[in-house]
Specification:
Elements (H helix, E strand, L loop, with lengths): L4 H32 L6 H35 L8 H21 L4 H30 L7 H23 L1 H13 L3 H34 L6
Length: 227
């Protein structure tokens, strides 16, 4: 282990905070969505719930974007070898990804925001492939073999990104119903669209929760560790 106990403790603390706010924020998003689709509530109450839903949803997005950088630095501190130049790239990735998340949200109603959202989708697809390939390569050259638990966490992280992308593909029906609510009030059809749109996302939301819990357990237990 690198002899930097204070820095290691700070990075480990940050890693724990990202897990807590990612899972906690995701639960909050899930809970607030129930009020958006509740036909018994007034239009204003549902619109307010939607604003809470959207703003709270940013928190898990930021946590996801930063997790790989913090996790990569944490891996460095416990002695996991990196290829030359790999660690700086990992460290830069998180802040830039978080900036992209902010820009997509900030400019969401503008042409720039829509272009950034498309880029973000493609970038996440790339990250899934890159993570799987990176784990395979690191196992092939022997760097990852003493750390099978870390390989598992990286593959789970790729799966979490995938679940998030699937959720995005299933949200348009919910958004369509919300636009009707926003424009002139809900109808039975728009309520059905919102409920069924969110309902199709729930299995993937639950998969994200399960994946986060599993990754946390793996990080603590380190099954199969040879170090």
């Amino acid at each position: 282990m690198v002899d930097a106990p204070i820095a290691y403790s700070i990075v480990k603390f940050a890693h724990i905070l990202l897990f807590v706010y990612w899972l906690g924020g995701d639960v909050g998003v899930f809970y607030s969505s129930r009020f958006v689709t509740d036909a018994k509530l007034s239009r204003d109450a549902r619109l307010t719930a939607f604003r809470i839903f959207v703003e709270l949803d940013q928190l898990p997005r930021y946590c996801l974007a930063l997790t790989l950088s913090v996790g990569g630095l944490l891996a460095y501190y416990i002695g996991v070898p990196h290829l030359p130049g790999q660690l700086p790239l990992i460290l830069v990735l998180g802040p830039l990804w978080a900036l992209l998340v902010w820009a997509v949200h900030h400019y969401q109603d503008e042409p720039l925001g829509r272009k950034l959202a498309k880029f973000d989708f493609v970038f996440r697809c790339f990250m899934i492939v890159a993570l799987i390939a990176s784990v395979g390569y690191a196992y092939g050259d022997g760097r990852m073999r003493p750390y099978p638990w870390l390989a598992a966490k990286l593959l789970i992280f790729a799966a979490l990104i995938f679940c998030g992308l699937v959720i995005r593909t299933k949200l348009p029906r919910f958004i369509s119903g919300y636009r009707q609510l926003l424009a002139s009030g809900a109808t039975p059809a728009s309520d059905r669209d919102m409920e069924q749109g969110l309902g199709s996302c729930r299995p993937y939301v639950l998969a994200i929760w399960a994946g986060l819990a599993l990754a946390a357990w793996i990080g603590i237990a380190k099954p199969g560790s040879l170090t």
